[in-house]
Amino acid sequence: MRSFLLIVSRDLQLATRIGGGGAMAVGFFVIAATLYPLALGPELNLLGRIAPGIIWVSALLACLLSLDRLFQADHEDGTLDLLLLDPLPLPLVILAKTLAHWLTTGLPLIIAAPVLALTLNLGADGFVTLLATMLLGTPSLSLLGAVGAALTVGIR
């Protein structure tokens, strides 16, 4: 358990030192979601009906921005090889790195989603559903993205 928390802590510290991960994702999320009303027009009923889809597509694209760096830096500097030698099982190492990714990317998106939901005229009934699905869905995006990031880590 200590190794798991150390990996999460290390990745969170790296994300704050390098910067740009969470802020870039939230910035992209907000920009992408606000472009839809410009393209579709100011019809509030239409925006309210498709607001969950707009927010989800924007969240998916924002999560994809930082997934390529999930294992890349550790692969380049050899840390990934050292993590393989750790007594912590490999699935837990990947889960720790994915949890850190979600905390730096997915959680800020969930925090920013209510503001976007209000700007897109989402009703109160859809608001609770959107937050519940984002709480379940953004970790899933990080986990599925970790599979893709792991498969492509050695390509460069």
Structure characterization notes:
The chain is mainly alpha-helical. The chain has one domain. Helices cover 87% and strands 0% of the residues. The protein is built from seven helices and no strands. α1 packs across α6, α3 runs parallel beside α7 and α6 runs antiparallel to α7. It starts with a helix and ends in a 5-residue tail after the last helix. 28% of the residues are buried.
Shape, per Cα inertia axes: elongated
Oligomer: single chain
Query: How many extended strands?
Result: 0
Poorly predicted residue ranges? none
Number of helices: 7
Q: What gyration radius follows from the Cα positions, in whole Å? A: 17 Å
What is the terminal-to-terminal distance? 32 Å
Beta fraction: under 5%
Overall pLDDT level: 91
Tally of domains:
1
Assign the structural class, choosing from mainly alpha, mainly beta, alpha/beta, alpha+beta, or little secondary structure: mainly alpha
Percent of residues in helices comes to over 70%
User: How many strands, which pairing sense, and closed or not: the largest β-sheet?
Assistant: none
Along the chain, the helix and strand elements come as HHHHHHH
